[in-house]
Amino acid sequence: MGAKMNQGTQARIDRGEDDSSLSWRAQLARAIKEPEHRTLYGFKHEGAWRVPRFQFYDGRPMPGVSVVFPRLLNTVTPVAVEAWFTTPTMELVMGDRPVSPRDWLLAGGDPIEVGTLAALL
User: Fold this and answer.
1) How far is the C-alpha of 118 from the C-alpha of 72, rounded, in Å?
2) Contact by Cβ (8 Å): 39, 115
């Protein structure tokens, strides 16, 4: 990936020391060391694993991402994943307005529906 990544795409992980951060840190370590599990979305850039911020909320992985990101094909670029995940789509409607996959998950929407869309990218 020769394209320069924007700051939002390159993850900076909070290194807080409270016990509540241990579970997501363990999840992050597993996602980086064993990418076939893909419970978080990550990609290699210049030899290092990057885990984009867009899949976190309030310092922790968002609910449902562990269902969504395993469905992504390895050929989808990080820029395309971020754009898809953060852009409203008519495939996901709450009330009468389209929402992004990210907003859908944050509102408690079914992650299987988002995973189905992810598989189509």
Assistant:
1) 5
2) no
Pair 101, 85: CB distance under 8 Å: yes
Report the C-alpha gap between 83 and 76 in whole angstroms: 11
What residue has token string 């299987």? 112
Q: Is the dihedral of CA 68, 3, 59, 90 positive or negative?
A: negative
- Convert the pLDDT of each residue in 82-120 to its tens digit: 999 999 999 999 999 999 999 999 999 999 999 999 999
Tell me the per-residue pLDDT of 54-82, one tens digit each, with 9 for 90 and over: 998 988 888 999 889 888 888 899 999 99
The two tokens of residue 79 are 């820029």
CA distance 42 to 52: 7
Tell me if the pTM is above 0.85.
Answer: no
Could you tell me the residue ranges of all domains in the chain?
A: 19-118
Calpha distance 42→14 (Å, rounded): 16
Radius of gyration from C-alpha coordinates of the chain: 14
The answer to whether 103 touches 91, Cβ cutoff 8 Å, is no
